[in-house]
Amino acid sequence: MEDIMTSDPVTVNVDTQLTKVRSIFREGWFRSIPVLSKNHLEGMITRGDIMFLSSTKSNIEARVIMERPKVIATPEMAMEEIAKKLIKSDAVQAPVVKSTENMCLIGILSMGDIIKKLLNNGVKPHNPNINSIFTKNVVKANYDDHISKVWSKMDETGFSGLPVLKKSKLIGMITRKDIIKSGHVRTGLDAVDRSIKVEKVMVTPPVVVTPETSIKDAAELMVQYDIGRLPVVENPVYIKKEPHRAREANIIGIVAREDILGSYLS
Fold first, then answer.
1. Of 175, 199, 216, 209, which is closest to residue 51 (Cα–Cα)?
2. Which of 119, 130, 190, 245 lies at a 20 to 30 A Cα distance from 184?
3. Are the beta carbons of 28 and 71 closer than 8 angstroms?
4. Cα(214)–Cα(54) distance, integer angstroms
5. CA atoms of 108 and 155, how far apart (whole Å)
């Protein structure tokens, strides 16, 4: 456990202003930030919490929007046990505390950390390739959609990233990270700048896989690029200098980090 977790994670205090919390998310690549009171874990704030926070409420403190962690890990827990808890609870990260009685934060563990450890240990997945585990019903965005529409789709589905299409071809991905980094925030309960379109914020060309891609290769791509969702495509037109990125492709599905992690667990 302690050899794979991040032992000195970025944290905020319960009284930290949300303007400061938002800037921390914008400047870094954090998926969630532990909220502490004298190093005692009180809650977590995620990208989703920050993304859906109205700018009119930014002067409040972290304690107001923090939530109890879905999974809390301790040093004696087995990695596989934590992995299963993360998948079951639809969580990406778990704060690590000294014990169930002592909530002193000592680190944070993510699905990505676990996948990296499994790869380093040479563990073999139960499925040879992603063909049997990817999701075929994909929620998508269009390149000329307003950010407000993507905001709503992410809110309704809970997905942290959506494939972006142009003329029915996959050309990019847009994630909560991209939107937060761009600086666009809600200006009211439901309003967001409707002039901003997906093409201004999305990442292109996207990293992609095909149904024949092995679980191991997909896992390595997720670790290498620190991404949680990979479009599954047919007929990709790859970028020569970056062979895993496609200029365009026909999207047929998506494979998520939890799908990959689940294929390694018994």
1. 175
2. 245
3. no
4. 41
5. 25
Mean pLDDT by 10 residues, the chain (266 residues): 89 95 88 95 92 69 95 95 96 95 96 96 94 96 92 88 97 92 60 74 96 97 96 96 95 97 90
Give how far Cα 148 sits from Cα of 18, 133, 170, 178, Å: 21, 31, 20, 14
> CA angle, corner 191, sides to 64 and 158, nearest 5?
60
The structure tokens listed for 173 are: 């991905």
| 181, 33, 186, 193: CA torsion to nearest 10 | 10
Rounded-to-integer distance, Cα 12 and Cα 104, Å:
14
Contact 12, 36 (CB under 8 A): yes
* DSSP H or E stretch at residue 238: strand 229-238
Residues across the chain? 266
Q: Name the pTM for this structure.
A: 0.91
